[in-house]
Amino acid sequence: MSGGHSHGAAGHAGARHRWRLLVAFVLVGSFFGVELAAGLVSGSLALLSDAGHMAADVVTLGAALVATRVATRPDTTGRRTFGSYRAEIFASGFAVLMMIGVSVYVVVEALSRIDSALEVGSTAMLVVGGLGLAVNVVALLLLRSGAGESLNVKGAYLEVVADTVGSVGVIAAALLVMTTGSAVWDTVVALAIGVFVLVRAVHLGREVLAVLGQHAPAGVVPDDVTRALESVDGVAEVHDLHVWTLTSGMDVATAHLVADDDADGVLDAASAVLRERFGIAHATLQVETRGSRQCQGVDW
């Protein structure tokens, strides 16, 4: 048996970017109250929808921060053999639910306003939308580098992306209302923002479900892994291969290798193939000899 194990905080993608999440959380949380108050005073649904997105951002960023802390916390029970790394995946799932909830509310509210003759404060929309855009751009720059490594950070990043689009939409709506004198543009832009966020939520949700469903990691084809292991000197056959993502940046694999009688070095060579060609640093491999019945009864 062989395994490569690295469960420290230093190896956890989300933990490396915790400070970015914290700064983004403070920035977005500080501005949320301002935008909510401005939306209520101006009567702008676009502003209120953007404030709703910011509320989702605050909750999502807070959940992401908690998840990165939980994920790297030492296990004192002795029962969490994989640690608590999947906390960040649940936080990402929570981000999806928040995005869907806000999107549905905005879309329903926008549809209910289509035939209403409402007046909105376009000046307040323009000023607050501009300030919101600045806050979101800073948060985006902070989270961008971590989004490619951690699904948790990616969930927070996509929330801020959606909110940035929302801020641009608020500015556009304000300019259109000023130019045309029609408040319908406020409703149209709010509806567009809601649909955009919903699409992003569905995309992230599929990634979360793929991890929870223990699908093969993105870009890793199990048949390719099998062929690569079978090409290792001394390996005659590979079966019972399983490869999945534990959490962002942590892909895991198990496999049974049928080896020739002189199987010295098979474990090291196979582990190196998984690590160097597929980025799988945590692998548990079992070596069997030809004619072995160690796998009798295994059918999954």
TrEMBL record:
Q: Which GO terms describe its cellular component?
A: plasma membrane
Cation efflux protein transmembrane domain location, by residue? 21-212
Provide the transmembrane region boundaries. Answer: 21-45, 51-68, 89-108, 120-143, 155-177, 183-202
Checking Pfam families in the record gives:
Cation_efflux (PF01545), ZT_dimer (PF16916)
- The superkingdom listed in its UniProt entry is Bacteria
> Entry's NCBIfam families?
CDF (TIGR01297)
Membrane topology note: Multi-pass membrane protein
Similarity-based family: Belongs to the cation diffusion facilitator (CDF) transporter (TC 2.A.4) family. SLC30A subfamily.
Query: Which residue numbers delimit the Cation efflux protein cytoplasmic domain?
Result: 223-288
Q: Identify the species of origin.
A: Janibacter melonis
Which SUPFAM superfamilies would you find in this protein's record? Cation efflux protein cytoplasmic domain-like, Cation efflux protein transmembrane domain-like
User: Gene3D superfamilies, alphabetically?
Assistant: Cation efflux protein transmembrane domain
This protein is called: Cation transporter
Q: Does the keyword Transmembrane helix apply?
A: yes
Principal subcellular localization:
membrane
List UniProt keywords, sorted A-Z: Ion transport, Membrane, Transmembrane, Transmembrane helix, Transport
